[in-house]
TrEMBL record:
Similarity section: Belongs to the TonB-dependent receptor family.
Record InterPro entries: Beta-barrel_TonB (IPR000531), Beta-barrel_TonB_sf (IPR036942), Plug_dom (IPR012910), Plug_dom_sf (IPR037066), TonB-dep_rcpt-like (IPR039426)
Signal peptide residues on this chain, from the entry's feature table: 1-25
Domain spans labelled TonB-dependent receptor plug: 54-176
Phylogenetic classification of the source organism: Bacteria, Pseudomonadati, Pseudomonadota, Gammaproteobacteria, Alteromonadales
Gene Ontology cellular component annotations, sorted alphabetically: cell outer membrane
Pfam families associated with the record: Plug, TonB_dep_Rec_b-barrel
Organism name: Thalassotalea litorea
Start and end residues of each TonB-dependent receptor-like beta-barrel domain: 371-819
Protein name: TonB-dependent receptor
Length: 859
């Protein structure tokens, strides 16, 4: 793993989910320790007591400094972290509805919303996007949008790889990631970078900068920006059905008809600010936040002009779906049948006679070659956190550290759809739609206290406690009327709403809000120089489903000065998000070679309730970790085994077919037009899992070749087993065997990196090898038996970078990711029904090798 264990880099406290109640005092103590002597890296992650070295941490922690993060061709924070933390994964999303706009991530094989994200020790708000097609493990996940955080703004990233809900609250089942912003009061940098894939597409231009300014005598104001534009990629081949249409003379079919690749990103702008000011009396006020916005456009599935259901046909392509204008007004139907089971329906006399009749029409008249919707969105992310912290220095509170803060975060996704239609409107339909918005808004107030007490033990006992109030809301704003309206031809079998992503209607619009309060108590005891133990408890109450109580105990025993053992045990929870409990959406999946339009309904909706949905409850977890730390001179090694049991895991169910026999009952329950819904899905507490694994990290520094050399190795083994799934009264299951297999085998069990770095006065370089083990590859959502899936082989990719320090201020860098263009798992020809070359579910970028150049000016 490319984790730089430099002897002078410091880690700010991840602190508490309630806030970073001891961050300031811990940071100051850490800085004093470094000033006194040259010691190993200091961290406070996972503890509220005094700072300690990595070797003395009772829980496994990775600290990746900002410079190390920038050693990658990508400017996306997700890709940067994948290259640095082996237990962290984020796959590309070529055709995944809203997940294309905000990619979901994984830590230790759990869903993206099982990892708590902090910024400067404060809880980061969620993205408004929910990953409706999240590659199995992330189906239905709603986590924060990490990609908006630019590496140029970061001092470091701290990754706590341990269950920590008792310390930090909901979402910390897999661990905690804290993004620490730069706090320099002087200096800065500006850089420009361009890169593209070996195949000549995906060109990305990035300009970023950072500046530190003094604020008074003892304060700072640090600001960062990033501007980025990225072209789309295509790793497509022509679909067989599209090729057949072209061969038959249909000149309106695109080549390729459907794109598999990364989305286009335009006008991606991010601004971050971090301000701190000493106000005297051992107190500091602080303020930090961001504004980020980008436009993203991705692809969808191709709609065949002969057989796409409820657009071109309602009988599987035997006949064309023909609209009758007179019938829509109550008159008898007069339009003749147009056979569609031919090579090219446009050339048939029946079709030409239909077009000549002003009373009859088909969607072929708008899109004669079929169509591929372009799904896009404008993503806006803003946050602001402010507070005061320091020491009380008189009265009965003398010596108590406090932190009082308030945060607000907002993420808005404004969806749009182009190159599509609302078939129920007939030939008057628009082909571009504003389909509506999701808005996630979170507000948090924290108050935390901490003090050391002398109980006669080896060191004072640190006792910390605090309170939190939090409000989370999820809002749906309706799209334009044409995106959801049931037009005059809906009764003739034409699809309602913008096809591919139906707009949110007035019945879906509204705001849902949840509030919760929490209290925690955390303490650590040093019984001797060799033995430390800690404990934490947390109570949290939600106004929607009640309260939870969780605990954590940790311990570390030093066998020698260079060898210690550590362990932890904790319980945890993850509350269902307000979005998961209330979201409404229409999505298109490819199942057994057929496009299925699925309606996602809240668990309380009559449609989902008819098929077994129940009110959502929190996930509950039990975690165990046992590890060892060895340090011999410049060699540093940690190894930790872990087990995470999660009960009542929350996820989006597999598709449940809406049968014709159910239509009458569904209408009686209040469901409109059930005949136009192929399948339904909803969120449910549906299965239990056990995730176990091993993390190994090793680092070694030495002088070699007249410069400084560094070697780092990191390895992660991770295995998830589905222990049980919820069985319905009729014996059916909502989480089918295909999804179980994706959960268990969809990501490699083995992942490792080995990095060699070398630096001289005028040059610096590194080479990184990335190993990805075998996994079960799935293409186009088709995970079922006989679908487009297979066991994929392991692979190794290599990254390399060389920097030339032209002067004190200028640095020029050339590098490449996947430098030998290691090919992703290729789809066999017999599986190529939807035009992709590579399985989209792979653990590394299927677009191939990527090269880049960058010039940086530092001051």
């Amino acid at each position: 793993m490319s984790v730089k264990f430099s002897k002078r880099s410091l880690a700010l406290a991840v602190s508490v989910a309630l806030s970073s109640q001891s961050a300031l005092a811990a940071e100051e103590a850490a800085q004093e320790a470094v000033a006194e002597e040259d010691i190993e890296q200091i961290v406070v992650v996972g503890s509220r007591a005094a700072p300690r070295s990595v070797a003395d941490s009772p829980v496994p922690v990775d600290v990746v400094d900002g410079d190390e993060l920038r050693k990658s061709g990508s400017s996306d924070m997700l890709d940067l972290l994948v290259a640095s933390v082996p237990s962290f994964a984020a796959r590309a999303q070529p055709i995944s509805d809203a997940a294309t706009l905000v990619r979901p991530v994984n830590l230790r094989g759990l869903s993206s919303d099982s990892t708590l994200i902090l910024l400067n020790g404060k809880r980061r708000h969620r993205a408004s996007v929910i990953a409706f097609q999240g590659g199995g493990v992330n189906d239905g996940a709603q986590g924060p949008d990490i990609s908006v955080i630019p590496s140029v703004a970061l001092k470091q990233v701290e990754v706590l790889r341990d269950g920590a809900s008792a310390q930090y609250g909901s979402d910390a089942i897999a661990g905690v990631m804290n993004f620490v912003l730069k706090d320099d009061a002087d200096g800065g940098s500006i850089s420009a970078k361009y890169g593209e894939y070996y195949e000549g597409d995906g060109g990305t231009t990035t300009v970023d900068g950072n500046i530190g300014l003094p604020l008074g005598d003892d304060g700072f104001a640090n600001f960062s920006f990033q501007l980025k534009n990225a072209d789309a990629t295509s790793r497509s081949v022509q679909r067989p059905d599209a090729a057949g249409l072209i061969a038959a003379g249909n000149t309106d079919v695109g080549n390729p008809a459907q794109i598999w690749g990364l989305p286009e990103i335009e006008d991606d702008i991010t601004l971050f600010g971090n301000v701190g000011l000493d106000i005297g009396s051992d107190k500091e006020v602080y303020l930090f936040g961001n504004y980020s916005e980008r436009d993203v456009t991705g692809g969808f599935y191709y709609r065949n002009p002969h057989n796409r259901g409820n657009v071109y046909s309602i009988d599987g392509g035997e006949t064309l779906l023909v609209g009758d204008v007179a019938q829509a007004s109550g008159a008898p139907r007069t339009c003749a049948v147009v056979p569609a089971n031919v090579d090219n329906v446009l050339n048939t006399q029946a079709y030409q006679d239909m077009v000549a009749d002003p009373n009859c029409f088909s969607m072929n008249q708008i899109f004669p070659g079929g169509y591929t919707p372009a799904f896009g969105g404008n993503i806006t992310d803003t946050s602001l956190t402010g507070g005061v912290r320091g020491d009380f220095n008189d009265g009965f509170m003398d010596g108590v550290y406090f932190d009082l803060s308030a945060s607000v975060g907002r993420n808005e996704s404004d969806f749009n759809l182009a190159n599509t239609l609302n078939p129920s409107l007939g030939l008057s339909t628009p082909t571009e739609f504003d389909t509506g918005k999701y808005i996630q808004l979170e507000k948090t107030i924290n108050f935390d206290l901490s003090k050391g007490f002398d109980f006669g033990l080896y060191e004072p006992v640190n006792i910390a406690g605090g309170l939190e109030w939090r409000e989370e809301s999820f809002e749906i704003i309706a799209g334009e009327e044409s995106s959801w309206k049931a037009g005059p031809y809906a009764d003739q079998g034409f699809n309602i709403g913008s096809h591919g992503f139906k707009g949110f209607g007035p019945e879906s619009q509204g705001v849902n809000t949840r509030r919760n309060i929490a209290a925690y108590l955390d303490t650590e005891f040093y019984f001797s120089d060799a033995f430390m133990a800690g404990a934490a408890v947390r109570w949290e109450d939600y106004d929607s489903f009640g309260s939870t109580f969780d605990y954590k105990i940790t311990g570390q025993f030093s066998i020698t000065d260079d060898w210690s053992l550590r362990a932890s045990h904790s319980t945890g929870f993850r509350a269902p998000t307000v979005g998961q409990a209330n979201v409404v959406n229409t999505q298109t999946s490819l199942i057994n070679g057929e496009l299925i339009q699925t309606f996602l309904a809240p668990a309380t909706d009559p449609l989902s309730a008819y098929y077994g949905a129940e009110v959502l409850t929190p996930e509950e977890s039990t975690s165990y970790t046992f590890g060892t730390v060895l340090q011999f001179g410049e060699l540093f090694i940690t190894a930790d085994i872990y087990s995470i049991e999660v009960k009542d895991r929350l996820a989006q169910t597999s598709q449940i077919d809406v049968e014709a026999d159910d239509y009458d009952d569904l209408r009686a329950a209040g469901v409109q037009n059930p005949e136009l819904i192929s399948a339904v899905t909803y969120f449910a507490n549906d299965f239990n899992t056990t995730t176990s694994g091993l993390d190994v990290v090793a680092n070694y520094n030495m002088e070699m070749f007249g410069g400084e050399s560094g070697f780092s190795l990191a390895y992660n083994y991770n295995k998830t087993e589905v222990d049980s799934v919820d069985v319905q009264d009729d014996g059916s299951v909502r989480t089918g065997p295909d999804k179980v297999r994706r959960l268990e085998e969809g990501m490699p069990e083995h992942r490792g990196t080995f990095t060699v770095s070398q630096s001289w006065d005028s040059f610096g370089m590194f080479v990184r090898a990335n190993y990805f083990g075998e996994y079960w590859a799935v293409h186009a959502d088709d995970a079922g038996p006989g679908g487009w899936n297979q066991d994929a082989d392991s692979a190794i990719t290599f990254d390399a970078e060389v920097s030339y320090f032209m002067s004190e201020h200028f640095t020029f860098t050339l590098g490449a990711n996947n430098i030998f263009d290691q090919e992703a798992e290729r789809i066999p020809d017999e599986f190529n029904g939807v035009g992709g070359q590579y399985y989209e579910s792979g653990p590394f970028d299927y677009n191939g090798g990527y090269y880049y150049g960058k010039i940086t000016y530092s001051f």
